[in-house]
Amino acid sequence: MEETLAPPKKFDPNNDPAKLSKISKFVTKRLAANSLVVDVEAPGVQLYVYQGFLGPADCKILIDKIDADAVPSTLYKGTEQAGFRTSYSCHLSRWDPDVGRIEARMSDVLGIDNDFAETMQGQRYQVGQEFKAHHDFFHPAQDYWQQEGPAGGQRSWTAMIFLNEPEEGGNTEFPNIGIGVRPQAGMLLIWNNMNMDGTLNYKTLHSGTPVQKGTKYIITKWYRQNNWLELTTPKS
Ligand SMILES: O=C(O)CCC(=O)C(=O)O
Ligand SMILES: [Fe+2]
């Protein structure tokens, strides 16, 4: 495990600290200028909340889509572990008008071109379901990096929206920094998976803790170092 968690040793254009640092700085400045965005001031991790980002009608639209399309969640090849991610999830197409509209608002908050984002995911956790502690950034020593590296490069920022409030459990926890975020319907949670110098921030380790009562619905959006859409759309 040590080996696979090690930062990249030699320069890899798909995990480029200079580019990632530029994105870190740009987004940080933009978030600081937005009075609706609150800096959680977590030690060693840039973590932000935007309460009431999404209204109840839009939360419901996304919840209905998740219920219609969710299938058991997956993990990257080579990292599969039974019981690690037991939620159900689905892709939310950017070409769907409601999804596109909501994504555009999210990307505008961060100031990143939405084409840099992967297809957004919807997730549903029922009682007992969870996503154990992980990093959202890619570990370049893992096999999946051969495919994911050229397909957009490293993941920079994560944006997540809680669509409802499970009655018990289902917090998003960052064990390295002692922070647990309680789901609040419509709340946008944003964090930087990188340090300001563009290196991987290992303190961003986080989990979706088991839901104890009720159901938890969220959407998760991961931004890449490069233009994900362009790099993953087959050339005709
Ligand atoms: O369910 C959560 O609170 C966390 C989800 C998460 O970490 C992810 O989707 O990458
Ligand atoms: Fe995550």
From TrEMBL:
GO terms for molecular function: oxidoreductase activity. The keyword ATP-binding does not apply. PROSITE patterns: FE2OG_OXY (PS51471). Its cofactor is L-ascorbate. InterPro entries: Oxoglu/Fe-dep_dioxygenase_dom, P4HA-like, Pro_4_hyd_alph, Pro_4_hyd_alph_FE2OG_OXY. Its EC number is 1.14.11.-. It is an enzyme of class 1 (oxidoreductase). Pfam families: 2OG-FeII_Oxy_3. Residues 116-225 form the Fe2OG dioxygenase domain. Keywords: Dioxygenase, Iron, Metal-binding, Oxidoreductase, Vitamin C. The keyword Oxidoreductase applies. PANTHER family: PROLYL 4-HYDROXYLASE ALPHA SUBUNIT, TRANSMEMBRANE PROLYL 4-HYDROXYLASE. This is Prolyl hydroxylase family protein. It comes from Sphingorhabdus arenilitoris.
